[in-house]
User: Fold these one by one.
Assistant:
Number 1:
Amino acid sequence: MSKARRTIARYLKRHAVEVPPWVDLPAPAPQLGVCVVIPAYDELETIESVIRSLDVEELTPEQVEILVCVNNTVDSPASAQQANRNTIELLRRLQKEVPFALHILDRATEGRAFATDAGGVGHARRLLMDLATARLFEVGRFERGLIACLDGDSPADSGYLDAVSREMNRGPARSRPLAGVCRYRHPIPTEEVHARAIITYESWMRYFEAALQLVKTPYAFQSIGSCMVLTARGYAQADGVPPREALSDFYMLQKVVKTGSWGSVTRLRKPLVRPSARPSTRVPRGTGPSVRASMERAERRFEWVEPPRAFLELRRFFAALEAGFEDPGALRQAASPFLEEIIERWNGWRAIDSLRENAPDARRFRRQFHTYFDSLKIVKFANRSREKWGGVFIFDAVAQLEDAGAFGGELSFRCPSDGQPPGLSERIELLQALRSCDHGP
């Protein structure tokens, strides 16, 4: 039995959630290679466009199936419950029209809804991804089986499925990534206040990702649920997606890096997803509540961002890891006084010393160090730096990162002059410049 097969079998036996007894799906097609999973809550107006956005030219329709979990809790608003019932009827009609197998998981109607404390997108995504893993395992896709995550309001551009399959399955199995992150573009609304909110939020996301790349951490990618693609093996190896109300994508991809290695999560070059830009309160954190706070309370959290100096300090510290393996004092010398203080506050120096003592060589010390100093710690240090030094205006922060060597010299935008606040056109220009630095057209 191959290692991938053992890993998936272990996960399904020990950790997969129980599929409700009323979910009785036909056997997967023997050719199945890609499962598209879509949690849907109150998505009646958008779910059809998401499903119809999927097409194939290189793959065949038999190699793809779509799993949609229409979900709410027993105490969800009546309007959402009705919309979900209508969504199920819509999906049943679509089953006869789309070229792929389309399966509906009903966690919305009476007797089938999630309990109040066991609902939300995290639980729906966990059920979907566990079921997708089991179906890929059933047809023997231990190495090449893929789980592509979309949301019920986030369509993909044409060619998405072919590109995902092509890039994730390129090369020999031992060198393939365990997960990938697609490119993304939020739609820009016509209403100016809404447009400013989503432009600012996406600009911050791209600033932060560029900062992570500058730091040279294995977590240098953006965590967006509708942009995730995982191999069945990578998903099982990381023990599944956490069923959280928010940030399940962040923790999922972090676990993949920790259980894999540098490069376990890759930034895909071609697949493009269009995440929703709508304001929302359905989850406590993420795009929806951030856009809503900006629109309703003039929240400027994503306009005055984490200071670039935080990431430059981390870059210098991480660059000293090899020397720090040979000389314990080298890492302390490479840490800024504030970073040294934060690590001390975390009791981190003792942990790092223990990693060094137990690592047989510098390479494995580096890997274990990044397992300890993970993406959550980077976020925490950046936030503490913002509290200490103050936020930096997004235009100035991007310019400072560019001066430090980020963006590969590709960035071109106008900074506001004479202390005047940027207009909408200047904000759009900044976002377009940041978008131009990701892979693909």
Number 2:
Amino acid sequence: MEEKNYIKFSIIIPIFNAEKNLKRTVESVLNQTYKNFELILINDGSKDKSKEICEEYAKKDSRIKFINKENEGVSQTRNLGIEKAIYKYICFLDSDDYIENNMLEEYVNIINNHNDIQLINSGFFSEVYDEKNPQIDIINYNEKYYSSIEEIKKDFVILWDKHLLYNIWNKVYRKDIIQENNIKFPDYNWGEDIDFNRNYLLHINNMYNTKKAFYHYIRSSESAITGRYIPNLYDIRLRENEEFKEYFRRFGIPDNVYEEFCARRHIERTIDCIEKLFDKSCSLSIKEKYKEIKRILNDDITKDELKKMKPKSKKVKILLIPYKIKSVFLAMIMGKMLATFKSKFPKLFNSLKNKR
């Protein structure tokens, strides 16, 4: 068991054009009740005043390590942060979010109570802001120590389903595990958190999940309706679906345990694909949208997954009607309605998505 004063954290924040919220983010780290940490601020070629803000903080506090570099994207920036980190435990923050001031203190307590802990996973706050009030949802799961890989397997699919294993900022990692297994963020900046976590989880033997939430994941009303149209998004979702199945098989999860989750996850994301066709960023013609939706509804994988999934709400059952009757026209109406609802009521839309 480690003595409290010798437990130290390297906190990595990649920064790109973050001047609006950067001070709040940095202050939430500096105001931690537990003081043994280094804060690594990496400016990834920002065009605003982020660099100057970082330099000012670095002058005031010797725990801050500031790195300024040309723009390479968040993945390469985080990899550099890992390389420069000097302490055993690593945490990540995004530059527009913030943390509760007792986060590190709580993490230290977990480390002290569970010798050789390899991963800490915590709850988090999902928040959408507008000019008035935020919509705040807490995403969490049971307080539990998983002492072996077999114990982790029992709740593995549930933790993914609860959206607790997707992100990197609600966790504490071990630098030695990252380095010894050459775990890196991939070169692409789409789903890089998922890729990193899936790789890391393959190399641990224990984990602690705390129900407590420390991290505030912030989205403005404007950013809440992002996730703009992306060409070939459905093809990306098909690939993701197969990657998740292969990953669960590799992790040793039986088919009957993960199949329904993967099926439901895939279908929910195809609904998202249809909705994004009606985002204002999509320039496809009505004819082209019709063709793409027809492809989605008639794809053999979508049809197979539809049979396996079990809708968890009446809302989802209603959204599945176009799938059931193979109505492209009805799916277009659904997509348009979802896009409009998300644009006009982003807080409610986000809250409904968070309900698992």
Number 3:
Amino acid sequence: MKVELLSIGDELLIGQVVNTNAAYLAKQLNKIGLEVAYISVSADTKEAIIEALTMAHSRANLLLVTGGLGPTKDDVTKESLCAFYDDQLEEDPEVLAHIEFLFDTYIQTPIRPANRTQALLPKKAEVLKNEVGTASGMWFNHLGVTAIFLPGVPREMQHLMETVVLNRLKSMSSLIIRYRTLMTYGLGESAIAERIASIEEELPAELSLSYLPNFGRVRLRLLAKHTSESKVKELLAHYGDMLVSRIRDIYFGDEEDGGLAVQVLKAAKYANMTIASCESCTGGQIAAAITEIPGASSVFTAGFVPYQTAQKIGLLDIDATLISSYSTVSAEVAEAMALNTRLKTGCSVAVSTTGNAGPSKGDSDEPIGTVFIGISTEARTYAQKFMFGNLRERVIEKASLKALEMLYREIIK
């Protein structure tokens, strides 16, 4: 079974919108044992859509298409389908009644002629009623290929997948596909590969291991395929635990149980500790990563973003002579930021960041990419220096992750 995902939309091709639909669909299909072989994107033109459909039908057994089903003139997917499948549009009374109901009940504006055209659907298609929107899904069976067309609006597409499509697709595969992703921080992929080489060599055929490095971390993804759910779970548990035994000093939990910020919160709750942050160069990303998690208020007390030097002095009572002597980007200032944050908030452990993320150096002569991360507990206050490169986005992301890593290590000591 070869599966292809096709996304339609100029906004995807020009980088204006990230293709989150494809990522969602791939994950959902994997859960029911269907592996995606191809992901493609088409422009919003009849010629491009027909070309993409022709290619997909030549190499896939199952095709899922998202986008291009709106009421505006640039949405030509249905016109393209009629050309490709030698079909014609006809009005579906039930779909039209549903659109009118949505306008009368929720939208509460007069329905426009363009919206009524969304009830015009290819005659050969099985209509998939969209309960939460005006663009219907469509199901075609053509020359041995199952092609499913879904709205591009993520909420509507996901609703149709979860209420209609996935249940019908389950019968297409008897394979069970599951994965376990180990999060590691502090060691590069080649060094990790050396540690776990003997385990990797003895992995059974049903298991594969992938290295996923990004922003100072390496994720190890074990992918298991089998016809038995219990066998898949057994493989992931056994070999995953074997890997953890080799990398315990850099292992920060399974990604499926939550990211690094989740692990920090879990560890803090278990240790009955509270956290506060004081961020300069990271601009609040540490606090954002923690506070987006439900229940964070039981652990996270406060976050400061004293971006300007004057605010470090006025808001946090950092000694001006300390800054003039060592500059804002220094171990001494990072320590003072962490210490004063802990004292002001009364938390158990505080983390601070100060650095030159670029593109200019600001109030310090330290090279771009230099970041000092401070940690303060009742037992000790210290700071570490890091060099995170010269790309601003990477510097901020790496510094935020390293700060969370240092927090985690301090909490579990």
